[in-house]
Write a structure and sequence with these properties.
- The chain contains 40 helices and 36 strands.
- By secondary structure, it is an alpha+beta fold.
- A hairpin with a 5-residue loop joins strand 27 and strand 28.
- Helix 17 packs across helix 18 (about 395-405) and helix 39 (about 895-925) packs across helix 40 (about 935-950).
- The chain starts with a helix and ends in a 19-residue tail after the last strand.
């Protein structure tokens, strides 16, 4: 009891002290007014103005920023609510008149556009800093391009249509998924019964008396019915602005009846429409009506103003309707609404947005430490959730901010945001130490430091084992950075070059080239592959890179000849300027709707292609916060094949990843998309999920493909064509069947179960005979740089990465995973046809086995045959409209879709014939005939193709410490260009880099 009383007393004292401090005007420590400084700009002094939106979530964050600026940076600030995100961006730009008011478009149209900087106020009058701007609408995106800085503040906002939990829960029990938008179009007659009709809701709204927002809606205290009403009415005084300003709004209002806008999907029977209540018109009324029209949703929409919507949602608890809301926010926490999720592709305002902090361009030069602090400060969703709960319980924004700052866990975080020179002056901002306490603390720290030094010295003398920061040591700081960007397969080759400089910065050459680096203001460095050297902190303004020679693995010469590699030292001189450095992938390169931020600053330049226009990849530079600089080589796609066993290891990692993967795409029984969670071991995890939860954080954020960082990449010989929506479990089973089939035919070792293996590192591949690379494959999820999808794809499918891989002589086979699914995808169909055009053998692979090997049940063969014979290439779909256009163009050049239908059906027909041959063989054996004699003419041809199929791939015959690689052709007297009809080469066991190629088309749809 005594302990509980003491703890309660301690908590009471902390809260009482916090309240006392706030009542005195400070939170962390008292600051003398004479120590506070103003911002000086162009001969005048200013308080640092901070603007924030009028909704709930930015207010506590703004107060936290204000407290730190005043009590840590000692800068005087002013904080103002400026309304919407659009207003916030305009204020930070200075797009106002001299009084700080927005320009009137009727009299100052040029100034009101906010597109010409000569009209901006310098400095802005009301906000140099904007907290939580939503860069969602097209207008806001255009304005944000003029800002000095706009970046994520940590948490995400989720605006959209919500409803009380009742309708969704009841419908779920009846088998309807009302949290997914398509349920409203597919099952309208059934789903409308879960909502109140428009006439009943309209009457209830108009009879509301104002309870919560009287200071806004009825300052004269006349708060009876009629103040809250549907406003989609051109004659309503509160909607007069529409006919004067917004042409889209004018057209919209003309379609309104009785205050409501009705969708065409239910306009003939208005009583069946599902009601939607929005806040302010200028937030998103036009955007929602466009989405509803395009999606053919049976909705009736109105807006009430935010205060009116708040009254309706709070008071009409018995009525059921959709309403606009967002999280994080405190307004409806007690209701716990459920969101209706829409397909992002049809949304004009995204349902998940990164909250942004925006800065006036002049702040960087005026106060760089403040600028840096604002760029690194960030808050989590859990922080905002707690803050909104406190605000709902009427805790003031100032108290919420102060309590957050004084929490010990948060204090450790925000201190890291303070620039180093200022942070050195912070000893303890939360408690005042007496002289005696400070003396005791100093003595204790001194004695503790002496003890630590003695222990360290003892450990060094006893063992001499301690970690020195080195690029070659993966557990050191620099070594961990090198491993993330270059991968362990390159890190283990690094070696230090002696240097007279004893600094903590390193210059690392993790590329296969001997290079000369000419760094402006520094020396010229000659580094061989794997060299690293200690240097002074290099400048990034201008770096020259010259390739002296190349050290290329032998198997690379199969796709790029030795003369082309040698020619690089005569042709390559690259210059990296300050403008080349990137901290994030550009949306036009990544093809994503969100920003892909790199872990560090990076820059890249393309190497010139060979005389035959074969690409040779990119040279890449990356720097870390300590100033170290690393040189990397990003290989071309024709050299990004991954060992088939490492592909199996990757698929096992997808299935066995320990985290619960939230917001994963899945499909219901009707084929509609939905978002769900997939825990460890889920067999429904797909390549979409693998890309989001593994490839993006472990490779794309380091400007690389997964193969470059985590695999023993090289030329591939089997091209894997697959569908991203297929489950990883089915894909893994299919790939294993493929490998085991090839191994059995090539007399290779018994296959391994990689879900039970510890992993395949470079060392295990060299030292363990059972971990020998059998062959390499091209698998797009692993082999394409997901941060540069559109850049790598290009504008012409004929020059895309997968086309280049398929057209190499080294690529001899194409493996089609899950043919029944693949027929529906335009990319897969194109790959089949291109494989045939380039004379590649196509394997049909399922989780039952290989079709051509007779491993697939007759029932599956029948399903495949029925679907193929009814199939038309024109019916295949493509998630990316841009991809669809240039695939259609390429198909037209290959003879059109009718020709592709013929080719596609011939591919499948041949596979089914060869499977049928196996069944004939079994019957003839039973009847006493020779397997081959009983085949018939068709069977003999199929049997001949089967016997020569593996001569094109790989024959592994282990012999002492060598593996013979025999490359035959089928038939032996026919050879493709530049390849002999039969060659035999002896390759050391540890360097076996077999001959298979596989690539998946790199589009945002699948890559």
């Amino acid at each position: 009891m005594a302990c509980r009383f003491a703890e309660s007393a301690r908590l009471f004292l902390v809260v009482w002290i916090a309240l006392l401090q706030r009542s005195c005007g400070y939170c962390l420590r008292e600051v003398d007014a004479s120590d506070m400084r103003l911002m000086k700009y162009k001969g005048r002094s200013y308080k640092l103005p901070i603007g924030y939106g009028s909704w709930a979530s930015p207010a506590p964050i703004t107060n936290i920023i204000g407290i730190l600026l005043e009590e840590v940076f000692k800068v005087q600030v002013s904080m103002d609510v400026v309304g919407s995100s659009t207003n916030l961006i305009k204020h930070v730009l200075g797009c106002t008149d001299a009084k700080g008011d927005f320009w009137d478009p009727a009299t100052n149209s040029a100034e009101a556009e906010c597109s010409q900087k000569e009209y901006f106020q310098d400095p802005p009058l009301k906000a140099w800093i904007g907290v939580e701007a939503w860069i969602t609408t097209q207008e806001n995106q255009n304005l944000a391009k003029l800002l000095g800085y706009s970046g994520p503040i940590g948490y995400q906002t989720m605006p959209g249509l919500y409803t009380r939990p009742g309708p969704i829960q009841e419908a779920s029990r009846d088998g309807y998924l009302l949290s997914w938008w398509q349920s409203y179009t597919l099952n309208h007659s059934a789903t409308r019964r879960y909502f109140t009709g428009v006439p009943e809701l309209d009457s209830a709204i108009r009879n509301l008396s104002v309870v919560y927002n009287g200071n806004i809606l009825c300052p004269d205290h006349n708060c009876g019915p009629g103040l809250v009403r549907p406003l989609c009415n051109a004659s309503d005084p509160r909607s007069h602005f529409l006919s004067d300003v917004d042409s889209e709004g004018s057209v919209l209002v003309q379609r309104c009846e009785g205050g409501w806008w009705y969708s065409e999907a239910c306009a003939e029977q208005k009583e069946t429409c599902i009601p939607v209540v929005l806040g302010n018109y200028d937030w998103n009324m036009v955007e929602w009506t466009k989405v509803i029209l395009e999606s053919k949703l049976p909705f009736a929409v109105t807006w009430l103003g935010w205060s009116g919507e708040f009254e309706a949602v709070k008071q009409l608890s018995e009525l059921r309707f959709l309403f606009y809301w967002w999280t994080p926010d405190s307004a409806f926490i007690d209701i716990a609404p459920d969101q209706v999720t829409f397909d992002e592709k049809i949304m004009l305002i995204k349902q998940v947005n990164n909250a942004q902090v925006i800065l006036w361009p002049g702040l960087l030069d005026l106060e760089p430490r403040v600028f840096t602090f604002l760029r690194v400060a960030n808050w989590r969703e859990s922080d905002l959730k707690l803050m909104m709960e406190q605000r709902f319980n009427n805790t003031s924004n100032e108290e919420v901010a102060c309590q957050w700052l004084k929490d010990p866990a948060n204090e450790a975080r925000w201190k890291t945001w303070i620039p180093p020179k200022l942070n050195d002056t912070i000893v303890n901002l939360t408690t005042e130490k007496t002289a005696w306490n400070q003396l005791v603390l100093a003595v204790g720290l001194g004695m503790g430091a002496c003890a630590v030094i003695m222990l360290v010295c003892y450990a060094v003398l006893r063992t001499r084992h301690f970690i020195i920061d080195s690029p070659a040591h993966p557990k050191s700081t620099t070594g961990a950075w090198v491993k993330q960007w270059a991968g362990s397969q390159h890190q283990h080759k690094l070696r230090e070059v002696p240097s007279r400089v004893n600094k903590s910065c390193f210059l690392v050459n993790a590329s296969p080239f001997r290079i000369e680096l000419n760094i402006e203001g520094c020396s010229v460095f000659d580094l061989s592959p794997g060299d690293f050297i200690r240097v002074c902190r290099p400048s990034l303004k201008k770096i020259g890179l010259q390739i002296v020679s190349a050290s290329i693995p032998e198997d690379y010469l199969a796709v790029v000849n030795e003369q082309d590699w040698r020619a690089l030292n005569d042709r390559v001189g690259l210059v990296f300027l300050a403008s080349d450095w990137q901290h994030a992938a550009r949306p036009e390169d990544s093809g994503r709707d969100w920003e892909i931020r790199y872990s560090n600053l990076t820059a890249r330049k393309a190497l010139p292609p060979t005389a035959n226009n074969v690409p040779l990849g990119h040279m890449k530079l990356v720097t870390n916060v300590r100033g170290s600089l690393m040189v990397l080589w990003s290989p071309p796609h024709i050299l990004r094949g991954v060992p088939v066993r490492q592909l199996e290891q990757f698929l096992c990692k997808v299935i066995d990843h320990p985290d619960v993967w939230d917001d994963c795409e899945d499909w219901d029984d009707s084929g509609g998309r939905l978002l769900t969670s997939k825990p460890q071991g889920s067999v429904r995890r797909s390549m979409y999920d693998a890309c989001k939860h593994i490839v993006m954080p472990e490779a794309a954020h380091f400007d690389a493909s997964y193969a470059e960082v985590h695999c023993n990449y090289g030329p591939a010989a089997v091209f894997i064509s697959h569908v991203w929506a297929e489950s990883s479990a089915n894909t893994l089973s299919t790939i294993r069947k493929l490998r085991e089939w090839v191994q059995s035919k090539s007399m290779a070792r018994t296959s391994l179960n990689y879900c039970e293996e510890t992993g395949i590192g470079v060392g295990s591949e060299r030292d363990d005979p059972d971990a020998t690379i059998i062959f390499r494959v091209y698998f797009c999820v692993m082999c394409n740089n997901q941060s540069r999808v559109l850049e790598e794809l290009g504008l012409d499918v004929k020059f895309s990465p997968f086309t280049r891989v398929l057209e190499t002589d080294y690529c001899v086979q194409v493996a089609l995973v899950s043919p029944l699914l693949a027929l529906n995808r335009k990319w897969c169909n194109y790959e089949f046809c291109l494989a045939r055009a380039t004379k590649k053998q196509v394997w049909m692979c399922t989780n039952e086995g290989i079709v051509q090997a007779g491993q697939v049940a007759p029932r599956t063969l029948k399903e495949l045959a029925v679907k193929v014979m009814k199939f038309n290439c024109k019916d295949a779909t493509c998630a990316s409209p841009a991809d669809s256009v240039f695939i259609d163009k390429a198909v037209e050049q290959m003879g059109g879709y009718s020709e592709q239908d013929t080719i596609l059906k011939q591919v499948f027909r041949t596979a089914i014939e060869e499977a049928h041959t196996m069944l004939d063989s079994a019957m003839n054996i039973v009847h006493g005939s020779s397997p081959v004699e009983g085949y018939g003419e068709m069977g003999r041809r199929a049997h001949f193709r089967q016997e020569h199929l593996f001569d094109q791939v790989l024959a592994l015959r282990p012999q002492a410490n060598e593996i013979l690689v025999e490359i035959h052709e089928s038939p032996p007297n026919r050879s493709p260009p530049n390849r002999p009809s039969r060659t035999t080469s002896s390759i050391p066991h540890g360097n076996t880099e077999p001959i298979f190629v596989a690539l998946e088309p790199p589009s945002p749809e699948r890559v």
